[in-house]
Amino acid sequence: MPAPIRLRELIRTIRTARTQAEEREMIQKECAAIRSSFREEDNTYRCRNVAKLLYMHMLGYPAHFGQLECLKLIASQKFTDKRIGYLGAMLLLDERQDVHLLMTNCIKNDLNHSTQYVQGLALCTLGCMGSSEMCRDLAGEVEKLLKTSNSYLRKKAALCAVHVIRKVPELMEMFLPATKNLLSEKNHGVLHTSVVLLTEMCERSPDMLAHFRKLVPQLVRILKNLIMSGYSPEHDVSGISDPFLQVRILRLLRILGKSDDDSSEAMNDILAQVATNTETSKNVGNAILYETVLTIMDIKSESGLRVLAINILGRFLLNNDKNIRYVALTSLLKTVQTDHNAVQRHRSTIVDCLKDLDVSIKRRAMELSFALVNGNNIRGMMKELLYFLDSCDPEFKADCASGVFLAAEKYAPSKRWHIDTIMRVLTTAGSYVRDDSVPNLIQLITNSVEMHAYTVQRLYKALLDDISQQPLVQVASWCIGEYGDLLVSGQCEEEEPIQVTEDEVLDVLEGLLVSNLSTPVTRGYSLTAIMKLSTRFSSVNRIKKVVSIYGSSIDVELQQRAVEYNALFKKYDHMRPALLERMPIMEKSASNGPTEIVQTNGETEPSVVEPKHPPPVSQPTNQANDLLDLLGGNDVPVIQTSMPTKPASAGGELLDLLGDLSLSGGPAPTPAPSVPTPQPPFLLDGLSSQPLFNDIAAAGIPPMTAYNKNGLKIDFTFERANPNPNIAVITIHASNTTEADMTDFVFQAAVPKTFQLQLLSPSSNVVPALNQGTVTQVIRVLNPQKQQLRMRIKLTYTHKGTAVQDLAEVNNFPPQSWQ
């Protein structure tokens, strides 16, 4: 058989291929020749054939049939064969294939070989693809080589030990004695790998972390020598002595100094020296400075040192390199909560980054800008952010609008400024705002009594200019319906009033009803506004005509409204003025939860926000168990009402404890005639005679954290209902520490069969980022037997475009909540 072609010739031949098909044909032809050679047990050219096979593997072609040939090369006595064999093993084998276990004995023999280069090959291979079984078998040999005087072997043994610890953490203590002596080595390669090994051990074991904290002075001394040493051509990179080792030492110091006062104190001086003496003109120096900043921020450093670190990040923001600017913005965003004032000094530089062409830098700058907003700089920062909102790409508008709303609500210097700011957002990015912005703005306008005339005039002008922004149109329609009389009368004192007639106002609203730009929701707002104006304007006949036209609309919602409004004009005309009178001031409940304020005979009292219930009876009983699947067992049955005369219905679902009882205070359905039997107390017994939340009193029950994972935190606060002490009222508070909103948030809960549970409507389905707001929801739990409270919760939400679902069990309720 002729000698196979050399690797160099194969590479040259493959590179001449003009098409993918031609290359594939060459590869297949060569693979066939290699297979034939393997079958004939050709020892002479096995090394050459495996080398060619590895090249084909790197090009993406299958080469698994060469695995056993690699093992034969490893068993060879020739170094050139072993080198290719071990390289092939690292590329073609991994711990998922049993073939790799056949190497264990060869590696063990080579670890004890007389030639250091053969030992080095074995260490590299074990450190690259050794399985947990191989690591257990060979850890003793690795530990022995870690103590050798040969620096070439010690550095490779240290990296191999890192792999062994990752695979078998319980072997960590075996390497402890040898690791202590590694830091006294002069060789930089050994020093570097020993720091990597120490870092791995400290990250994996708190005991090791405490043990190695006494090495901090030695690490500080090594770092100081690196900074103060003169030019060393062997380790110099752009004028800096061994930056790779410096970065590794800084990372290890960060781990050792975290939450430890003594270690932090020992490294404060050297960190200050690194921060002030490192050259920043080259990227190498910036890398060291960045690690220094991270270390300063993670340990218990002095306040002056933290300010120095933030100033370094501020200098990074002026760098021409986009990567460095992005890193600086990300780091400042993490530190802004703890060192707010120091970061504020770089506010103008951060705001300038909003104009950057790079979208990732713009996003980070926007997030950091919102984090810097406070009561002192709200006007200036909002001016910059609104300018950014005008000119930014559509992908930023939703987040920017949400941020402006939250900041304005928290720090608004006056109600007029607040209203002007939100209206500016609606006019520039109305299509991108969140769904809750419309009711929130309506509430703000309603509560600002002195601003009603000014607001309705501004909104009317905005409506004349643009009706494409649906949230703006909805708010404007609502305000015109409520305060149209102020618009026509020209009572605005805040700015020059405009002259508007009733017909002009109605023309605008009718135009919204027929516009192709209007959504069904917007048309509903407009029709209701026209109806409300029937008590404020004199053009009642025109309004009657408009309303009657939409009584036959193909939009069911619009048709229903029009039919009901027609009935008000005819059968209930005497009630119309009272029904359409101006809305009272709306107040947010203390818990931001399930109650809303309604007006009854001039007196304000709370009423239930009625949760939507599934239709009764129409589904099989076993579907009532759907939500309880989250409990992971059958020990928690569906909660049923105790009315034996009622048919089984979907009222057994966890969120529908009350069967067909009306939550709005209406009469309950009459049961079939039977002898009255005493009923156990239910969560909402007597609902027709008293409100749901009747004198809820705080019971001095301490709050608790029920869930804290992936940036989402769920806190429980507790209250006791006075009429029935067996009912515990739990308010959940969901907060989000991450940098992106959590949308489509749903909280579900289930309890054992001895309890009854009702879950009321949440305040929102969006948990704002960076703790800029919370979502609240009220749970009522009936515990007649005073048993210890247990609950399983299910959380679903969308974060950064990814759907997340998690289950948790809560068993640590404070005793006061259930006793």
TrEMBL record:
InterPro entries: Adaptor_Complx_Large_Subunit, AP1_complex_gsu, ARM-like, ARM-type_fold, Clathrin/coatomer_adapt-like_N, Clathrin_a/b/g-adaptin_app_Ig, Clathrin_app_Ig-like_sf, GAE_dom
Name of the protein: AP-1 complex subunit gamma
Subcellular location as annotated: Cytoplasmic vesicle membrane; Endomembrane system; Golgi apparatus
Swiss-Prot/TrEMBL keywords: Cytoplasmic vesicle, Golgi apparatus, Membrane, Protein transport, Transport
Membrane topology: Peripheral membrane protein
Coiled-coil region: none
Family: Belongs to the adaptor complexes large subunit family.
Residue ranges of domain GAE in the record: 699-814
UniProt entry tagged with the keyword Transport: yes
GO terms for cellular component: AP-1 adaptor complex
